[in-house]
């Protein structure tokens, strides 16, 4: 193997190894950045959902406390006067339902008995102790409560406020329940997220007796859950199925391809005030942007790596052949001719050789020492 071939080959191989290593490290760095971006997106999705649910519970409680503080409310609840409560609040509830997503409104008397459902006045007097722990706690402790629950009218976000009679004695409680549907729809409009609300079928059938039976049909059943609401049913069917939501006890994250895009999916379990699981909310966001950016960065890294290998290899070949191999070949040819007894003309332009090659030429008599001409 000649130096002319082996040296450039060795240098080119070294260049390839170094550039490939740097490209690999760069790719890992960009992959890590993509993962960090997607992790922050998951955190943002969870924060948006949890904040919206918390704000909804605060709003429900604030509105309930306003109604509970009215003198009319105090007098009517203390007297258990259902007709007066209907006359005073039925119209206001209808407005709140149509404009602000108030799904349920109910007065209770201790220990946890329904006095009046503004959303369903004919049904009253039933004991809520078994399935409404938040109402039980509010009446027992005579204190406000808020959270998620499955009521007779279905799942909602409730705020329960205590009611005192005109003499300041505890008389009962009042609650507002915000429906999930308008909350999830508004989040989709604001943040371009898609949602599916899955509710446990067993408590839904047992407690939500006023629910539309069509909601419990087979087409809405997903394992042991009922798909109660979704912002994009075709997409969310692909992204969140029975196997995904069946064992969710803590927030879970994953990515999945659907409809030609890559989506990040967040599963958030829902529990009532007593910690009993009620269901799961699936949140999806299109991650195609970050994935496309990662793919583009990979293409650019590969292109730059090839460009760097070509340029550095060309430089290595030019340097070795131009500064070392070619001058040595010229000197070798002249020495071979001299050894054969041929007349050898002095070398011209040796000043262009590198100092080491010039020294060889001078020692071989093919070039004059510095500052001297060649003696014929």
Structure description:
This protein has 376 residues and is α+β, with helices and mostly antiparallel strands. It folds into three domains: 3-27 and 293-363, no CATH class; 69-178, Beta-Lactamase (2-Layer Sandwich), CATH 3.30.450.20; 181-286, Beta-Lactamase, CATH 3.30.450. It is built from ten helices and eleven strands. The strands form two sheets. It has a six-stranded antiparallel β-sheet. Strands 2-1-5-4-3 form a five-stranded antiparallel β-sheet, with helices on both faces. A hairpin with a 2-residue loop joins strand 7 and strand 8 (225-230). Helix 1 runs antiparallel to helix 9 (288-339) and helix 2 crosses helix 3. The radius of gyration is 40 Å and the shape is rod-shaped.
Task: Set out the fold topology.
Blueprint: H1 3-68, H2 71-78, H3 82-100, E1 102-109, E2 113-117, H4 133-141, E3 145-151, E4 154-164, E5 170-178, H5 180-191, E6 194-200, H6 201-207, E7 221-222, E8 225-230, H7 233-239, H8 242-245, E9 252-258, E10 261-271, E11 277-286, H9 288-339, H10 355-363
Antiparallel strand pairs: 1-2, 1-5, 3-4, 4-5, 6-8, 6-11, 7-8, 9-10, 10-11
Helix pairs in contact: 1-9, 2-3
Number of helices: 10
CATH architecture of the largest domain: 2-Layer Sandwich
N to C succession of SSEs = HHHEEHEEEHEHEEHHEEEHH
CATH class of the largest domain: Alpha Beta
Strand order of the largest sheet: 7-8-6-11-10-9
Summed up, what is this model?
The chain is an alpha+beta fold and 376 residues long.
